[in-house]
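Job type: complex structure
Entries:
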Amino acid sequence: MSISLQHISKSFKTVNAVNDVSFEVKEGELFGLIGPDGAGKTTIFRILTTLLFADKGTVTVAGFDVVDDYKEIRNHVGYMPGKFSLYQDLTVEENLDFFATIFGTTIEENYELIKDIYVQIEPFKNRRAGALSGGMKQKLALSCALIHKPKVLFLDEPTTGVDPVSRKEFWEMLKRLQQKGITILVSTPYMDEAELCDRIALIQHGKILQIDTPQEIIKHYPKKIFDVKADNMYRLLESLKSYEHHYSVYPFGEFVHYTDKREDFNPQELQQYLEAKNHQNIKIEITKTTIEDTFMELAK
Amino acid sequence: MKNYNVIEVENLTKKFGDFTAVNSISFEVKKGEIFGFLGANGAGKTTAMKMLIGIAKPTSGKAQVAGFDVFTHPEDIKKNIGYMSQKFALYDDLTVKENITFFGGIYGLSRAKIKEKRCELVEELGLGDIVNELVGSLPLGWKQKISFSIALLHSPTIVFLDEPTGGVDPITRRQFWEMIYKSANNGTTIFVTTHYMDEAEYCDRVSIMVDGKIEALDTPKNLKEKYNADNMNDVFLKLARNSS
Amino acid sequence: MKRFIGFIKKEFYHIFRDKRSLFILFGMPVAQILLFGFAITNEINNVDIAIFDKSNDATTQEIIHKISASKYFSIKQHITNEAEIETVFQKGKVLAVLVFEKDFKKNLTKENSAKVHIITDATDPNTANSITNYISAIIGSYKMEINKNVNLEYQIETKSRMVYNPELKSVFMFVPGVMTIILMLVSAMMTSISITREKELGTMEILLVSPLKPFQVIVGKVIPYIFLSIINAIVIVLLSIFIFKMPIQGSLFLLALESVLFIITSLSLGILISTVSATQQTAMMISLMGLMLPTILLSGFIFPISSMPLPLQIISNIIPAKWFIIILKGIMLKGVGLAFIWKETLILAGMTLFFIALSIKKYKIRLE
């Protein structure tokens, strides 16, 4: 096991930030911690990177205990905190060079590892980090976290505040890093990114809701989900919620995700009900379950 | 009901020196519509929105918001719009009640009116005792719902939402969108700027800005068909890739 | 060691790229010294005075001549009766009236003592005080002259006031104070801000998770500022010597050693501040309110400690700047050696040890 947490709890004054959390990440795995802001993701990262003590439980990273062997861990992990923590007044190259130096290495020595990330920002290597776009900052921060060839990489919300193009590229980079044998723990509030991980832990209010592969998590969703659409979204929601057999009704983009209490639900019946309520252009179709549906079901 | 335009923009342009942040954009937004205004960081959407809410003067072009011209009547625009941003929403060190009173006050609502609105709000959101708690101690989801309600306090024609639901848990987010649908249903126009593409899926129509220009403007459904994409994220990726 | 040097290099990049801190570092010392040297001064120039000479003899004529010949005073008016004193003051024409008693020369030669009244407009007490001192000095020097020819010693007043600063140059008094403030500002405020900036940016998290030892992080942060503070101290001393012609009476080596001690005191205070503040803004506020104000007000720099109420006198003892100013004045103005300032030095060293111990204890190797 590359990372192992056993019954971790952590409170701040009155807030129970992390509540009896356990999970394990295998060597070379890309593991996602998926949950909204305030779920406890950052606290878990800080415990794993030896920045915080857990109140209860044991944690090992790369085989080292986070309390007793914190110095060893600090040599073997790469950490990219929530905000891209770069020196805004240093240039791209100076930032990278600085992080290489404090980890006792040089850019040349590990260039191979960061090459395909760094080449994208290398044309701007003399630009100050503060003047970079969000996507470029993210790439530089990742390069800095990788420069000492860590065994385990911790990425706390690396894609927050970054445009979709950069997000997509970022995940592609992570996949390539994984192939080089680096264990990666990544957190994100975006449910759609969950499917890009090998395994995920859904987390809310400091508690783990479920841990599995994204496919298994989706498979275990107990209901069939239907996309429902009509002209007036607000009225549609109201009608569906007052339908006696409804189990859950959530707006989902241009549709409403609807589930029914009955096992033998016939969409035709719902169609008739909605028509009776004067809805126009009604459309009801069975649809694929997403991680987000599962999350809402578990968090209910 | 949705028959007249509350925002009309024609060739609106904003230049900072040599740099053209907003390059001759044109669009209309109808009353009661949920309009998504999308674009990557730095595409110019913040600048465009600042012009629409009357805090930045356009370089050239025409724009009318809530019936007022952005060049000549920016102060009237401000009275008729609501604004909510994820970065700044409420004062953390005031209670919910004090926030409501304060924001009601700056929009010139009378004491009685504020009280009436506050009671409505408490009931609608199920606030209960929370009204007397400091905003800072509330979960993010609550803050967002409350600040949206506060943006609606003076019954504005249009509400501008700046990246309203980033990072919120999925259930709260749905509740938030239900509130948006409700006020749109009541005739309030909703103008959402965001770079989170999944928020775009909830809008009636979306425009996508790339490098200061509007590259696409249609319903999410039509855009997905046109670009042969599964979701708005892919639409955006295809558009952005073409541009660079 | 390479890690450490890399760290220090980065610190210098920060300092030299931030226009604001560069200005505080190098603009402030020069500006403050010049400000205190030229603008805020107790020196007087061409002050208008009136003379009420009741005896009008050769001696009083000579003294009046000496006074009017000096660049400090110009005699605006001669008055002839007591009532007029009140009037000239009320009209604000003069700031002082000099009253020679009747039979001045006769009293001086026969009774070895003659009286001059110096009446000053004390609405501005500092100026009034200076005027009195200046006139006394002029009369004093005149008496010295006449004493050479006479066997009898005449009474001379306020000699001690002028021993260490015969021309009463106020800049000499301000230099030790300004130097103290600058060193405090640069060392304490700048270090605390630079450490909290890393916290705010989130880079502190990365540094803590790196193999750099927390001790190295702190020392690395501090070294550039030690270096800059020393440069500052040198600039201040050079300015005072070459622009204000201030003589440094004591040993320059001792001065340097004491300055380094005080710099370390301030730096340890800076680190201490950074351990309790989470943002640059807080660090700045604590530095200004907690360090700068007491340093300016209670260290004896502007207001003499001996004239403060007792509680403040007691509080002034815990202000490091007070001891450093005593040391500086000792070395710069009196030219004393360690033998005379060992007590102050020891107090300062003790405080430094205390602050260092406290900041090491407070400094967190984790985030809590």
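Summary: DSSP finds nine helices and ten strands in chain B. The first helix of chain B runs from residue 45 to 52.
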